[in-house]
Structure to design on (422 residues):
């Protein structure tokens, strides 16, 4: 099945399966994992695991399960994680700073694949030029030059709501293809640019419903 | 319709609608908003807005729309935001620290409702006793005493994956009802405890698919 035919809800679960496979210790698991085990560690039913994985052409062996190394490679390939993914962060306040540190800590020592933080941008003259693990904070005005120069197509937006759309417009102009938006506002962009929103405030208000 | 009958995907959109209503300036909008305008600012179709709001018993007037103040109050009531919600954070590393600052900045000056950060926990002796905007970082061993004492039932978990389940178990023992989990691991808890996962790493890998 071609990549374009896999529903987004399924794509969403693939990194979760990949994470489970990468956390398996070799002593406790052999080279095979059942859909039951994979599902339990992922918070998904075994039937859903089998259905999701069949969509990417991965079929377990009856009574045995999935060959771990093969499945891991296949998940990486589908998710484009078989090559380096360059990421930039726009907005280096508390949250942007924490995200930068997280990406560096999580991925810099990863041997198998990289999400590499290559650029940071802000508009506050007090932080321009500062380094976070060797990555300098550049002025947002240089964004359009830096994007092709450094070759990143994925951006994390962590700026205040009031300026988020203008930052998004800069991303569009610079040919950015994927955006993870932390600003508490709905951003507009042409079709073809993928925007995912993550919003602590919405998460907390959503949870409050269940109190 | 009773609260328990509203699907979670709808609940998820209610805080987004609420945020839009709260950001409306009074000069540019009268006291009414159409489902078209509310949908556009929320990233949702007008039909979906009308359907979602009908589930909470809010019906717009034909050709006019929704009375803004009434809808805002109704959304707050449904989301339990008509009273103060106390939140604690477990794990005050980079991420936990950024989350603490975010909650304080976002909600401390909010006049209409509060998500109030009341406690912080960590296990690192070097940070115990430190204050973040007046809230002390306590040792995780005091969690079970502090939860009833301070009266919080919602917790943000921002600890490393290896210790997240043991922290979750402490939450269960202390009667916590809602958890926002930032640790990159699937947590287990008895039914009735609501766990939402938010994972930067999964978000980034998910987005990488679209590059």
């Amino acid at each position: 099945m071609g990549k374009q035919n896999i529903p987004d809800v399924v794509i969403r679960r693939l990194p979760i399966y990949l994470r489970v496979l990468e956390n398996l210790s070799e002593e406790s698991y052999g080279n095979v994992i059942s859909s039951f085990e994979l599902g339990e560690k992922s918070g998904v039913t075994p039937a859903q695991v089998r259905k999701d994985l069949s969509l990417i052409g991965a079929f377990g062996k009856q009574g045995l399960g999935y060959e771990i190394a093969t499945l891991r490679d296949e998940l990486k390939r589908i998710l484009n994680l078989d090559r380096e993914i360059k990421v930039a962060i726009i907005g280096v306040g508390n949250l942007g700073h924490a995200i930068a540190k997280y990406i560096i800590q999580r991925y810099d020592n990863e041997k198998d694949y990289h999400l590499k933080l290559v650029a940071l941008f802000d508009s506050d003259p007090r932080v321009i030029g500062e380094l976070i693990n060797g990555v300098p904070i550049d002025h947002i005005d240089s964004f359009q030059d830096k994007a092709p120069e450094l070759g990143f197509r994925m951006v994390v937006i962590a700026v205040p709501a009031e300026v988020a759309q203008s930052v998004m417009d800069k991303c569009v102009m610079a040919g950015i293809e994927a955006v993870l938006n932390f600003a508490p506002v709905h951003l507009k962009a042409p079709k073809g640019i993928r925007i995912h929103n993550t919003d602590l405030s919405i998460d907390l208000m959503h949870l409050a419903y269940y109190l």
